[in-house]
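Structure tokens please, single chain.
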Amino acid sequence: MDRPAPEPTAPVPLPLTQQRYLEHLRVERRLALRTLVLYEQALRRLCQLADEAGVALERVSVQQVRRWVARLHGQDLSPRSLALMMSAWRSWYRWMGRQGLVELNPVDGLRAPKGSKLLPKALAVDDAVQLASYRDESADPVREACDTALVELLYSCGLRVGELVGLDVVPGASARGWLDLDGAEAHVLGKGSKQRIVPIGSAALAAVRGWLQCRGEWLAAGSTETALFIGPRGGRMGATQVRQRLGQRALAAGSPSHVHPHMLRHSFASHVLQSSGDLRAVQDLLGHANISTTQVYTKLDFQHLAKVYDAAHPRARKR
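Here you go.
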């Protein structure tokens, strides 16, 4: 006789100090939901390691953290994942220190193993323009208008997908962002709840106006939904929906590789830098707190120049 499948067990509650810390991140620092999930996962892993070692979280030593990191690295956890995990641990212990609950931050001074840095993937200019210009005359006109506006805004403004789905039709007290079509500006709320203003190109403006003309067809009578981008059921579109629809559109447009929203952000940054050479302006447009984050696009720009050189210079071509 088959036994019934066991009921899924609820996750073990985190220690109260870690629950308070996550609440601090959510309410006071207003971190994004995805970031909060990653922090919680990292703190759960810390609890597991401390429990296996039979040591209280408040008494974890530098040597123990070093051994744990080496062990996790040996289990094929990537350097990037280790760095994110250690950052969460370090921040929690720093917060504990400010509360007077620990005297030592055992993660201070420790660094995750270095991994090879992967350059962000960006579309070539022609491929990005082809995707943005693609139109499906046989598609539902409302969906087509919506998808066109999505692609144009992502590529025209270099928005993160979270910033895009957070846009409202008009500014309001609870709005995380909105568009000023008369001023051709996007007001967005980026990482760390930092606001910035990004100019909107003429093609994106036309696409958004086209979408707004038919957006009401997806709204129920009397709806008060303020989101700029909504789904067929009239609710705010989520990041997953944007990824799916962009992927489908890129496939239909004949794009050379799998396209996701952040690839259009990378393409925006790379193409603006290629044309202007102004790294500081690209930093401001992307909303990067540190210019070192933006400097990765100089490597993409150099790759582009190297390809041009290899293709054009008579002494570079192989005989």
